[in-house]
Amino acid sequence: MELFISIISGTCLLVGSFLCLSGGVGILRFPDFYTRMHAAGVTDTMAASLILIGLMLQNPDGIVVLKLVMILLLTLLVSPTASHAIANAAMKNGLRPLVDDTDHVDGKGDKS
Amino acid sequence: MIMGLYNYWIVVILMMIGFYIVIAQGNLIKKIVGLNIFQTSVFILYISISKVDGGTAPILADGISKYSNPLPHVLILTAIVVGLATTALGLALAVRIKEAYGTIEEENIQMKDDEEC
Amino acid sequence: MACVAIAIIRVKDLFAVAMLSGIYGLLTASLFVDMDAVDVAFTEASVGAGISTLLMLTTVAITGSRDKAVRNKPKLALFAVTLTGVLLIFGTLDMPYFGSVDAPANLHVAPHYIQNSMQEIGVDNIVTSVLASYRGFDTFGEVVVIFTAAIGVLTLLSTGRRREEDGVVEKVNTTMHNQYLIIRIVAKMLIPFILLFALYVQFHGDFGPGGGFQAGVIFAAAIILYAMLFGLSVAKRVINQSVVQLLAAVGVLIYGSVGIVSLLGGGNFLDYSILSEDPIAGQHLGILLIELGVGITVAAVVIIIFFNFADRIDGPAPEKEGDPS
Questions:
Q1: ipTM summary value
Q2: Which of A22, B13, C15, C258 has its CA at 20 to 30 Å from residue C25's CA atom?
Q3: Residue C324 CA, distance from chain mean position
């Protein structure tokens, strides 16, 4: 049982770290603002949640688990809202998504 | 010797970058950011002095006998808050300069002062 | 971190500079955690990576966001910087190694604090006991400094504040409600928890990282979140400006009066052992009261600074435009 829990915890941590890395690569390489927002949102929500679950399973009893559960709930609540806020602000100011693949027009007004 | 002193050299590098930003960049907001970098490098200097090998955070707990030095932590806490006060005042001054001169570039401000004299 | 700092030099867009300085603050906070300075990391994360970035973004919103000038003579600056750097590195050759136990900084007063903090004061967090009791004068000075910053910002930025009619506020608020629905609902759910967390950090500072400064900043952050999402005029009606300014002064007064009560009780200024029968209970009471004073002042000051900056985003009020520009 102990071995099973630590295997699952290690897997969660590894997958979470991989998602962080791929989110970072995505922020640099995606062509448009909205796709980059998606990469950032994945990093913030999914990768952070998986790492937190992995940390919870590392030491399954104690008050640390309770604190980590609260941080997990907060992350699940706040990060998607933050991504929504940024995308909403961009849409409000007129930044159109890249819908047509054939002509490669860079989204106007983004900084990187 | 390099392995023992590298933390001071990192501090010196960051301090010099902050110093360069303050004296060589014309934009007032970048100067304030450079000042912030300079202050932060000094904080890192003090905190790295306070670290003790094998010690933990200075909160008393059972079974731990070696703690890092808490005195620089206190000084740096004060310094961080004072840094916030300085930054806030500097940015308020930048806002007022912008309204009075119309620009926050250092050279344009000096040109306007020379014109009026 | 050096890469972030060099990027700040090179990037021309001031919005990106503000974001980069926030990243720099966060990296510094992580570095502090790595060096066992948890209280300091908490403060740096909330102040340096939170409030400083917010103030810079507000200033960039007021002053425009591009850096125009071309560098004219960076060589002299580079030479001065390199010379200073070489001299400083030469000066560090004599310093004690990183993490050494017998460095002079760790030898004289610090072991006294570490060993005697539990008997003399009775709190677990040595940093809080040093900050609030052994070095209470320094903390008093710090509270007064941050109060002075609020007075300075008020002096500079409170002329020319706009007055709005009430009808405009209602109309603007209902139209924006549909656009920002999700964010407003989530924020309304979160703000009570943020305020509760600020109170937790304030009173838990004796046992873990925390204390007055961090709690004040988190409290102010909750109020600023409300102001950003629901409009500045609505927030000003909820949080009355004169009450906040009064609270900033009240915090400093609480701190000073604890000291004066100690004087009246027969001890030294800010000597908490006089405050109660048992000296340890007196220390606890004294630390509780002054952390409360610190938290109130810091929260009020940050709210004052933010509201005064945010008032200026549309420029100064029209009647007061007398300066040539």
A1: 0.87
A2: A22
A3: 35
